User: Fold these one by one.
Assistant:
Number 1:
Amino acid sequence: MFVFVYFSVWILCREITMIHGSKLACPEKSSMVNKLKLLCDELDIGKESGDRSTASGFSVSLSRAKYVVKGHIVRFDKVWSNIGNDYNPQSGVYTSPKNGVYHFSCTVMSAGKKAIRVSLWKNNLKTVTSYSYHHYSGTLNLVLHLKKGDKVCIKQDYHENYIHSEPKFNYSMFSGFLIS
């Protein structure tokens, strides 16, 4: 329901942005348009998104198979992109630069006939979990509301085991980005 309302307001705001310079004949409509303009400004809707300083996103993978102890953070070391430098490859932790809605995804491949289970953590809270076995891949996806400074990471959640990856194929990866 929230998504429907949000996109409905977004469409209205885009329309208002298009007629921003024109005069409206009806004072009631003009008042409503002004109220919607204020709402659009509060939600940052209808503005050009050319300001890269507010952008944040990353895509990282494992450069090779990695042995990870249960409860430890998976440090994805091959950085494909790190817009805003909010992902730290040394720690494996993403730190949100501002309040907002974010999307995260992670895919890991198990090694051999072993099982692997990883979870996405927001601060000290386990959110969703992915499981794979016998060279299959497990994937997780999640949209989260984060506050500035919140930490997000992937932790190995099932015995000590290998996460499979190869330099040429990058089977195991972690990505996230700011939606709004």
Number 2:
Amino acid sequence: MELKVWVDGVQRIVCGVTEVTTCQEVVIALAQAIGRTGRYTLIEKWRETERHLAPHENPVVSLNKWGQYASDVQLVLQRTGPSLSERPTSETSALVPERGLFHQSLGLLSVLSLHISIKNIFSHVFHS
């Protein structure tokens, strides 16, 4: 299945997504494809409503719950900050998670150490 995700105002298509694919896997695939590190979250947008998806959630399952409105829902990749390795040490010692936000740190090592099966799931074929 193809999953459409907006990245920096451009719609990208992630191929090979299934009902068991997690948001974290989608975020890692997108960050690797665009060559960026940092902390990201997937946001589900419908009209004036936004919901941050948890890393363990399945975006396909979430979209299916919208029923007839699923085609009106947008998934947006939002960078929420630098990766932990990019932050100054004084800032990392005082980290307090924001309520309701799910951050996924994608430092260079995590992007490079992707398991081979994840690479096979995502073909990294994107269309504008």
Number 3:
Amino acid sequence: MTNHPVHMHGYEFKVSCTDGGWVDPAAAWDEVSIDCAVGQMRAFDFVADEPGDWAIHCHKSHHTMNAMGHSVKTYIGVTKKDLVSRIRKAAPGYMPMGSNGMGEMGSMEMELPKNTLPMMTGYSQFGPVEMGGMFSVVKVREGLAKTDYADPGHYKHPEGTVAYEYKGQKLAEAPRVEGPKPNPELATWQVKDPRKPRLGPDGKPLPGAKAGGAHSNH
């Protein structure tokens, strides 16, 4: 492992200290991620005025390619009943996954050594957390004392601010607008012979153009 690009959700902050010392407040710069090399330190300040449970984690590329992958196919909302019966004929015990996201993977725990921090588990108020061992949580609450380091528990979201599955009437699909279809009969093709000089709009050779290319050794 080399550097750690540390990213924090919910806030913009100011980098206030580096290995070279404290940064002049007038020179502090705004960030949402800080890149720390091996042995480096960075300190940042922010005004805790947005209550919530905010994730702070590493934006290393191998994390985004694994559990935070965005380039894999999604099966959210897909019913696999017919597919499961076919696959189990070839692979008994096959378990369909992904119809409700991959959060269920966080609950599939295997025994680990006692001094091991699991990377793909953990539970929160909404169920298992896929990235449970790969991030920390900054808990911001109103009215906390300066010396109060007790766990305030899960953040209580204001009513109407939490996403939920819509189970009402099916929404109408947006109308599709199709543009004009290409007409292959109108397409024109021009084949250029690289051995001949380039021609201008008037059909005459361009100044300095040589047969066989623009370089004298061609």
Number 4:
Amino acid sequence: TLSKVQVRMPEEVEELEQQRRMEAERLAQIVVTVNDYLAQRDAENNRPLFEFLG
């Protein structure tokens, strides 16, 4: 029904787009840690996947 249709004003859409971009930038950050224990653990946990992918 038409009563469920939502209409957003342009400034709201722009704000949402800005928030989406900021969130995407935050998620795009990569953290690298050099830790032998974690590297070994992750290698063992992911071994089936790595073998499957070749």
